[in-house]
Amino acid sequence: MHSNGQSTGTNSLDPIKFEVIRSALTATTEEMAATLRRSAYSTNVKTRQDFSCAFLDSELRVVAQAFTQPVHLGSFVELIPRSVRSYGVENMAPGDMILVNDPHSGGTHLNDITLIAPVYYPGAPDELGEKPVGYLATLAHHVDVGGGAPASLGAFQEIYQEGIIIPPVKFVEGGEIVSDIFTLVMAQVRSKRETPGDFRAQVSANLIGTRRVISLFDQYGYDETLFYMNELLEYTSRRTKSEIAGLPNGTYKAEGFLDSDGFTDKVVKLVIEVRIEENEVFFDTTGSDPQRRAPINSTLAMTFSGCAYALRALLDKDLPVNDGFYRNMKVHAPKGTVTHAAPPAAVVGGWETEDRLNDLIFLALSDAMPDRVPAGTKAMQCQVGIGVIDPADGEYKCTYEAIAGGYGGRMTLDGPDAVQAHGQNTENAPAEETEAKHPMRISRYELIENSEGPGRQRGGLGLRRDYEFPDVAAKFTILADREISGPWGLFGGKAGRKAYYIQNPGRESIELGSKVTLQLKPGDVISYQTCGGGGYGNPYEREPSLVLDDVLNGKVSTERARTEYRVEIDSTGRNIDESATRQLRETAH
Prior knowledge:
By secondary structure, this protein is of the alpha+beta class. It folds into 3 domains: about 15-240, no CATH class; about 375-540, no CATH class; about 545-589, no CATH class. About 30% of the residues lie in helices and about 20% in strands. It is built from 13 helices and 20 strands. The protein has helices at about 15-40, 45, 75-85, 180-185, 195-220, 220-245, 300-315, 325, 350-365, 430-435, 545-550, 560-565, 580-589, and strands spanning about 50-55, 60-65, 95-100, 110-120, 135-140, 170-175, 175, 250-260, 270-275, 280-285, 330, 385-390, 395-400, 440-445, 465-470, 475-480, 500-505, 510, 515-520, 525-530. It is globular, with a radius of gyration of 25 Å.
């Protein structure tokens, strides 16, 4: 090992040193993630973990990522290189950081704000000393960025209604937040207490990352560290090619629909073609609907993320994800469609489209890879946006959540109950924390009995979460989907129960659409009842003991056990009636 920036002068690869440096780079991004989470103020960041961190090299290639939210994959690949090149490396200095959230320049939706820090290494050769050795980035979903409704969530028709658009601007200069920019941004947002804390948490995370990268260069030297970083990308590329070579070559296609766009009852058509060749995978969304004057348009970065996640899920779980992985996949999403919207399209609901596209990729591949793909899942972000004036302190408070649902059954496993699907990896917000910070109650929070898609391996159960406002008015936005049909089953499995969005359940119940903003009065309740996952395989082939377990656990009723699985539970409700079950299944065939 060499310190003080000195190089070994050799290009021979030491496998132990390779693993140490590889792990150190990943650990850097994971320490950034831990710093961001512990320093943040909002429930959405510190508890739900709606953020991601990454390190890119001097050529703006992703080298390491902390996998908090896989849906952010595409933004790092698209947004950071564009932003750095647009702003100009020559305009950055040590201690500077660039803020950006522009969806149509490589970003996602406006709430996802990225802070980029160039890393300069003091021990670099003189002729290279003014060039960053890499870039650190933190992306956090801020609970509000202005716009036409609290949490910047609503059925908007163009992006200018969705909140503040931030092109690449210098947010930190010489280690200090630029007060004018900070003041300008904060003037647009409703959450005056939480947002400043989340921004400072992003700054702190980048500072920690900078120290760790510089320390790595100190330990191994300038040339040697760069050599191993490049070798990591080449190693990942070779492994990715090898993994892809093990997939069945061919062209696979599927199409599906979102139930509505937010302004009309017209469904939104999505088409995906997956072409697997020797060592490369191509994704093509040609045939998807033209973009709408509605919030469900996906940006190219969102679509890229869905495709990247789907491919990564099919490969070895130990495979690194960096530029070496990305260079072996291609995404074609025609501009001007709901999978690659052009300005001034609204995009805040584009995650609903990205999630459904992700589900369709697995559907397209189901016949070719039945052992690797699930039946239909929740496949929507299922977003919640709330704004209230808290009578206790007069503050405008915003809440943002994304509600879990059922995952699809797999060849040998049931779908998990009440989880986020695919690249959506956020945690559920604890009822206690939500109630402690906002003048509302979570009056019901439970799994939904009989919401699973029946199958040999059943789908996961959906989730019910009721928001009650005992003594305050509130503005409430639902931005979700699945109100017409639930997730599909595979290979004889049945669809999961569809989602319901209900105002004042059990009283003057009103069944709502999945994309609506409401003004609630004190005493009102909104009930989210998310969909169950699709079943996998013939439900009559499900092991009766598993059906009994579900009955005993309150997940499936005795009636449903009989009608959907042909399993008879005896009068005690605790045992299988073997004879009756055998007769039911014989007559079913």
